[in-house]
Amino acid sequence: MPNLKDCLRRAIRESAAAYIGAPIQNPGYRGIEKLRREVLGWFKRSRNIAAELNIFTMLMERGGTGGGLFRRVYRDFLRAAGEHLRDQRLRQGAEDFDRIAQEWSRAAGLISLAGKTRENRHL
Hints:
By secondary structure, this protein is an all-alpha fold. The protein has six helices and no strands.
């Protein structure tokens, strides 16, 4: 069996590297930047903004897009890894991911509200 501590450290390093160095623009921080640039144009390009934003927020929060759900799962992973490795930096990272997950869910809620009200100002 591989050493669990080594596996945890490797998983965290590889996850961080994938987030920072994704080869395409959609995942990681570059995907967030891309979303920021495009979000205000959604109303201009859409034929049915309410339905489209409803689907988008459902995917954002509950789908495999890395929304609030992913951030909560990663928070729990970092918390468990921090306990196992006795590493306060990972415990702090878990707290940070908890706040990030809350903000991500808040952003999804605002996108949903924009669709329901058909008001661009929520974006």
